[in-house]
Amino acid sequence: MSEKIRIEQVIVVEGRYDAAVVSSVVDGLVLTTDGFAIYKDKETQALLKELGRKRGVILFTDPDAAGFRIRNFLSNLIGQNYVKQAYIPAVQGKESRKQHPGKEGLLGVEGLPAEVLKKALLDAGAVSAAARAGRSITYTDLFQWGLSGTAGSQEYRHNFLKYLGLPPRLSKKALCQVLNQLYTYEEIQAIVLENKF
Q1: Would you give the distance in Å from CA 64 to the centre of its chain?
Q2: Do 38 and 74 share a domain, yes or no?
Q3: Is 129 contained in some domain?
Q4: Does residue 186 share a domain with residue 145?
Q5: Model pLDDT for residues 68-123, shown as the tens digit of each residue
Q6: Which of 49, 129, 180, 193 could form an SS bridge with 8, CB 3.0 to 4.6 Å?
Q7: Residue 189 CB partners (closer than 8 Å, separation 6+)
Protein backbone atom coordinates (compact mmCIF):
# COMPACT_ATOMS: atom_id res chain seq x y z
CA MET A 1 0.00 0.00 0.00
CA SER A 2 1.33 3.45 -0.84
CA GLU A 3 2.16 5.99 1.82
CA LYS A 4 -0.59 8.14 3.30
CA ILE A 5 -0.66 11.81 2.38
CA ARG A 6 -0.79 14.31 5.24
CA ILE A 7 -3.53 16.87 4.65
CA GLU A 8 -4.09 19.99 6.69
CA GLN A 9 -7.71 20.61 5.75
CA VAL A 10 -10.56 18.63 7.29
CA ILE A 11 -12.02 16.19 4.78
CA VAL A 12 -15.80 15.78 4.87
CA VAL A 13 -17.38 12.65 3.40
CA GLU A 14 -20.92 11.30 3.52
CA GLY A 15 -20.70 8.05 5.48
CA ARG A 16 -18.53 5.89 7.68
CA TYR A 17 -17.47 3.56 4.86
CA ASP A 18 -16.28 6.58 2.87
CA ALA A 19 -14.44 7.80 5.97
CA ALA A 20 -12.75 4.42 6.48
CA VAL A 21 -11.48 4.30 2.90
CA VAL A 22 -10.30 7.93 2.89
CA SER A 23 -8.60 7.44 6.28
CA SER A 24 -6.64 4.56 4.79
CA VAL A 25 -4.99 6.93 2.28
CA VAL A 26 -4.91 10.21 4.22
CA ASP A 27 -3.27 11.26 7.46
CA GLY A 28 -5.69 13.91 8.64
CA LEU A 29 -9.11 14.52 10.14
CA VAL A 30 -11.99 12.91 8.22
CA LEU A 31 -15.54 13.71 9.34
CA THR A 32 -18.88 12.41 8.08
CA THR A 33 -22.19 14.10 7.35
CA ASP A 34 -24.11 10.85 7.95
CA GLY A 35 -25.87 11.59 4.70
CA PHE A 36 -28.76 14.02 4.94
CA ALA A 37 -28.60 13.93 8.77
CA ILE A 38 -26.26 16.93 8.46
CA TYR A 39 -29.27 19.13 7.67
CA LYS A 40 -30.57 18.76 11.24
CA ASP A 41 -27.29 18.17 13.11
CA LYS A 42 -26.56 21.66 14.47
CA GLU A 43 -23.53 20.48 16.46
CA THR A 44 -21.77 18.99 13.46
CA GLN A 45 -22.67 22.10 11.45
CA ALA A 46 -21.08 24.30 14.14
CA LEU A 47 -18.00 22.07 14.24
CA LEU A 48 -17.57 22.20 10.45
CA LYS A 49 -17.90 26.00 10.45
CA GLU A 50 -15.28 26.30 13.20
CA LEU A 51 -12.88 23.84 11.57
CA GLY A 52 -13.44 25.48 8.20
CA ARG A 53 -12.33 28.84 9.51
CA LYS A 54 -9.30 27.40 11.28
CA ARG A 55 -8.10 24.69 8.86
CA GLY A 56 -10.24 24.77 5.74
CA VAL A 57 -12.52 21.96 4.56
CA ILE A 58 -12.41 19.68 1.55
CA LEU A 59 -15.85 18.40 0.56
CA PHE A 60 -15.54 14.89 -0.85
CA THR A 61 -19.05 13.60 -1.56
CA ASP A 62 -20.32 11.02 -4.01
CA PRO A 63 -20.91 12.03 -7.66
CA ASP A 64 -24.68 11.50 -7.47
CA ALA A 65 -27.48 14.02 -6.91
CA ALA A 66 -27.55 13.39 -3.16
CA GLY A 67 -23.81 14.03 -2.91
CA PHE A 68 -24.17 17.32 -4.77
CA ARG A 69 -27.07 18.45 -2.55
CA ILE A 70 -24.96 17.81 0.56
CA ARG A 71 -21.97 19.53 -1.07
CA ASN A 72 -24.01 22.66 -1.89
CA PHE A 73 -25.54 22.80 1.58
CA LEU A 74 -22.14 22.58 3.27
CA SER A 75 -20.49 25.06 0.90
CA ASN A 76 -23.11 27.65 1.81
CA LEU A 77 -23.00 26.76 5.50
CA ILE A 78 -19.21 26.88 5.92
CA GLY A 79 -18.54 29.66 3.42
CA GLN A 80 -17.00 29.39 -0.04
CA ASN A 81 -13.73 30.98 1.12
CA TYR A 82 -13.06 28.07 3.47
CA VAL A 83 -14.12 25.20 1.20
CA LYS A 84 -12.35 23.23 -1.51
CA GLN A 85 -14.19 20.73 -3.69
CA ALA A 86 -12.81 17.24 -4.40
CA TYR A 87 -14.58 15.35 -7.16
CA ILE A 88 -14.41 11.71 -8.14
CA PRO A 89 -15.30 10.50 -11.63
CA ALA A 90 -18.81 9.16 -12.27
CA VAL A 91 -18.12 5.44 -12.64
CA GLN A 92 -20.92 2.92 -13.10
CA GLY A 93 -20.93 0.10 -10.58
CA LYS A 94 -21.71 -0.88 -7.00
CA GLU A 95 -19.63 -1.15 -3.86
CA SER A 96 -18.70 -4.72 -2.92
CA ARG A 97 -20.52 -4.54 0.44
CA LYS A 98 -23.84 -3.66 -1.23
CA GLN A 99 -26.28 -6.07 -2.83
CA HIS A 100 -27.57 -3.49 -5.30
CA PRO A 101 -26.09 -0.40 -6.88
CA GLY A 102 -27.19 3.03 -5.66
CA LYS A 103 -30.13 4.88 -7.17
CA GLU A 104 -28.01 6.33 -10.01
CA GLY A 105 -25.81 3.25 -10.39
CA LEU A 106 -22.58 5.14 -9.60
CA LEU A 107 -19.70 4.16 -7.37
CA GLY A 108 -19.27 6.38 -4.34
CA VAL A 109 -16.08 7.50 -2.64
CA GLU A 110 -15.76 4.14 -0.86
CA GLY A 111 -15.82 2.23 -4.16
CA LEU A 112 -12.83 3.81 -5.87
CA PRO A 113 -9.12 2.91 -5.68
CA ALA A 114 -6.76 4.74 -3.33
CA GLU A 115 -4.85 6.44 -6.14
CA VAL A 116 -8.07 7.93 -7.58
CA LEU A 117 -8.98 9.31 -4.15
CA LYS A 118 -5.52 10.80 -3.61
CA LYS A 119 -5.56 12.42 -7.05
CA ALA A 120 -9.01 13.93 -6.41
CA LEU A 121 -7.83 15.43 -3.11
CA LEU A 122 -4.61 16.81 -4.57
CA ASP A 123 -6.46 18.18 -7.62
CA ALA A 124 -8.82 19.96 -5.21
CA GLY A 125 -5.87 21.81 -3.71
CA ALA A 126 -5.26 19.78 -0.58
CA VAL A 127 -2.47 21.36 1.44
CA SER A 128 0.18 19.08 2.87
CA ALA A 129 0.24 19.31 6.62
CA ALA A 130 3.55 19.68 8.35
CA ALA A 131 4.13 17.17 11.10
CA ARG A 132 2.82 18.80 14.24
CA ALA A 133 5.49 19.72 16.70
CA GLY A 134 5.22 18.19 20.13
CA ARG A 135 3.25 15.23 21.26
CA SER A 136 -0.32 14.32 20.46
CA ILE A 137 -3.19 14.79 22.87
CA THR A 138 -4.36 11.36 24.09
CA TYR A 139 -7.30 9.83 25.97
CA THR A 140 -5.06 9.78 29.06
CA ASP A 141 -4.61 13.54 28.77
CA LEU A 142 -8.38 14.02 28.61
CA PHE A 143 -8.71 11.97 31.80
CA GLN A 144 -5.91 13.85 33.59
CA TRP A 145 -7.42 17.20 32.62
CA GLY A 146 -10.81 16.07 33.98
CA LEU A 147 -12.44 16.08 30.54
CA SER A 148 -13.28 12.37 30.49
CA GLY A 149 -13.93 9.50 32.89
CA THR A 150 -14.04 11.44 36.15
CA ALA A 151 -16.80 12.70 38.40
CA GLY A 152 -18.21 15.87 36.86
CA SER A 153 -16.24 15.43 33.64
CA GLN A 154 -19.32 15.72 31.41
CA GLU A 155 -20.20 19.20 32.68
CA TYR A 156 -16.54 20.22 32.75
CA ARG A 157 -16.05 19.04 29.12
CA HIS A 158 -19.24 20.86 28.07
CA ASN A 159 -17.94 24.15 29.54
CA PHE A 160 -14.45 23.57 28.13
CA LEU A 161 -15.82 23.00 24.62
CA LYS A 162 -18.08 26.03 24.91
CA TYR A 163 -15.01 28.10 25.88
CA LEU A 164 -13.20 26.86 22.75
CA GLY A 165 -16.24 27.50 20.55
CA LEU A 166 -16.68 23.82 19.74
CA PRO A 167 -19.87 21.69 19.87
CA PRO A 168 -20.48 20.52 23.46
CA ARG A 169 -21.33 16.90 22.65
CA LEU A 170 -18.17 15.68 20.93
CA SER A 171 -17.32 12.06 21.73
CA LYS A 172 -13.99 11.32 23.40
CA LYS A 173 -12.54 10.11 20.10
CA ALA A 174 -13.79 13.15 18.16
CA LEU A 175 -12.55 15.46 20.92
CA CYS A 176 -9.02 14.01 20.66
CA GLN A 177 -9.04 14.31 16.87
CA VAL A 178 -10.32 17.89 16.86
CA LEU A 179 -7.97 19.08 19.61
CA ASN A 180 -5.00 17.52 17.80
CA GLN A 181 -6.02 19.32 14.60
CA LEU A 182 -6.50 22.73 16.17
CA TYR A 183 -4.13 22.91 19.13
CA THR A 184 -0.88 21.63 20.55
CA TYR A 185 -0.70 19.68 23.80
CA GLU A 186 0.93 22.69 25.45
CA GLU A 187 -1.85 25.06 24.35
CA ILE A 188 -4.59 22.86 25.81
CA GLN A 189 -2.57 22.23 28.98
CA ALA A 190 -2.28 26.00 29.47
CA ILE A 191 -6.01 26.55 28.84
CA VAL A 192 -6.94 23.87 31.38
CA LEU A 193 -4.53 25.22 34.01
CA GLU A 194 -5.57 28.85 33.56
CA ASN A 195 -9.34 28.32 33.61
CA LYS A 196 -11.81 26.79 36.02
CA PHE A 197 -14.62 25.51 33.85
Answers
A1: 21
A2: yes
A3: no
A4: yes
A5: 999 999 999 999 999 999 999 888 888 778 777 778 888 889 999 999 999 999 99
A6: 129
A7: 145
